[in-house]
Design goal:
Layout lengths: L13 H12 L2 H4 L2 H8 L3 H25 L5 H9 L1 H30 L8 H15 L4 H30 L24 H7 L1 H8 L4 H5 L6 H30 L11 H8 L3 H35 L17 H20 L4 H27 L16 H19 L4 H27 L1
């Protein structure tokens, strides 16, 4: 290891980046969190996913435009270029905190999926085993990480497609296990909007958590070959796939089992197969879901360690975190993340029944703020372009302004909703703390 400033190696291929972007977005949010959104909104949650998908598309387009113009800058450095040191400091640490919580959630979810087979083993021990594996995996060169993540992501995407096909056949009566009147589940038990529009908007918290991870391509940009060519095609291919991978599975789940019978213990995907008598299929699906959340945790470890590396190079984090190992990875950032995962394991030991639900409420708000920041950065930097890039947002600035306004309303709704009190308090305390720390770090920079 060397103490001088080091640059991350560009070892990610286009296919790695495409699957990497999907990997971060398809994890606990759909496989485990879908049970929470169904309890909150019932079948109407599909409209929440559609609204979130529209905002996702706008944010991703803005991010891709910025990445084409500034191919060597990741998200955190784009914030620095647009708004300066203090804003970059707050957003950088907020982004790290967000992904760290997400990674902890994925690790605990992986442990809960393992309990499907190892029923006598405690959640904390299974989660610890998963955490050790993820930390070890991220110590390899980024090209090996990208290759393994490519296959991880491929497994869960294949599983979702298989679920859609098999579930669709069952739903439309092409199986002996098909329910007699499946479509009545959409309108029974309180109707399509059992908790009204308020319930649908309330589910946006978990929806935002689910879609969070799309911006991972902005982190991967600094380690991607030919980023100007890769990112536009990634944007065009990822967004509609993610929307389909959320909307269709939710519709199938609601059609096969009443939304109010979805339990929070097992994944709704496993519960669907179990309810129609496909026990072996349920076991196979549980394995796939385990692989999926491990993939998302892997993406989270990548995102957090690279964010710490970028902040350390900007003097927004301890210089130690900028050091790369012989394999070209930010080893001390990975070790710091490993300590945080250990804390998450302790939390799962203290509150094994509530840990996923409580933690999942936190990243929803921070993802919201991050998306607003990306849109604001595009508004600010668009005026500084030498020329408009070949890939750019159409009808600018109206889509960007729409996204900022919508995300701001959603954020206010999150903060003022008493059901999100834990996540709201933590988010507010975190913002106040980071803002105060930014003044301290800025003063240190000025005195150098």
């Amino acid at each position: 290891m060397q103490m001088e400033e080091q640059q991350l190696k560009r070892g990610l291929m286009p296919r790695h980046v495409q699957l990497l972007a999907l990997a971060g977005m398809i994890g606990t949010g759909i496989f485990k969190g879908s049970s929470d959104t169904l309890h909150i909104a019932g079948p109407s949650v599909v409209f929440a996913y559609l609204l979130g998908g529209l905002l996702l598309f706008i944010v991703m387009t803005a991010l891709a435009e910025l990445a084409v113009v500034y191919p060597h800058l990741n998200i955190q450095r784009l914030m620095y270029k647009a708004f300066g040191f203090q804003f970059s400091f707050v957003i950088g640490w907020l982004y790290w905190f967000n992904w760290m919580i997400v990674t902890i959630v994925e690790i605990v979810a992986a442990g809960s999926f393992l309990q499907y087979w190892f029923t006598s083993m405690p959640l904390w021990l299974l989660s610890l085993i998963c955490a050790v594996f993820i930390v070890s995996l991220n110590s390899f060169q980024v090209k090996y990480y990208g290759e393994l993540e490519f296959w991880f992501a491929g497994i869960k995407i294949t599983a979702l497609i298989a679920f859609i096909i098999i579930g669709g056949f069952i739903l439309f009566g092409f199986s002996s296990a098909s329910p007699s009147h499946p479509f009545t589940n959409y309108v029974s038990n309180g109707g399509f909007f059992p908790h009204g529009l308020k319930g649908m908007f309330a589910s946006l918290l978990v929806v935002m958590f689910s879609y969070g991870g799309s911006e991972l391509i902005g982190v991967a940009a600094t380690e991607t070959k030919s980023v100007e060519k890769v990112l536009p095609s990634v944007i065009k291919g990822v967004v509609w796939r993610v929307i389909i991978f959320y909307i269709l599975p939710i519709l199938i789940i609601c059609g096969l089992i009443p939304w109010n019978e979805v339990s929070g213990k097992d994944s709704p995907f496993v519960q669907v197969f179990s309810s129609v008598g496909f026990r072996n299929a349920a076991s196979i699906m549980n394995f796939v879901l385990f692989t999926a959340v491990m993939s998302a945790a892997n993406s989270g470890m990548y995102a957090t360690s690279r964010t710490l590396h970028a902040m350390a190079q900007n003097n927004e984090a301890p210089k130690l975190l900028s050091i790369l190992s012989k394999n070209g990875v930010p080893i001390y950032g990975i070790l710091l993340n490993g300590i945080c995962l250990a804390i998450g394991v302790v939390i799962s030991y203290i509150t094994p029944d509530k840990v996923i639900g409580d933690l999942m409420s936190i990243p929803g708000t921070s993802v919201n703020l991050l998306w607003i920041s990306i849109c604001l950065a595009q508004l600010k930097l668009r005026r500084q372009y030498d020329q408009l890039p070949f890939f750019h947002m159409r009808w600018f600035p109206y889509p960007t302004l729409f996204a900022i306004a919508s995300l701001s309303v959603i954020f206010i709704f999150f903060i003022t909703n008493t059901q999100n009190i834990i996540g709201s308090i933590i988010c507010i305390i975190l913002l106040i703390t980071l803002t105060s720390m930014s003044f301290v770090y800025r003063k240190k920079e000025a005195n150098k």
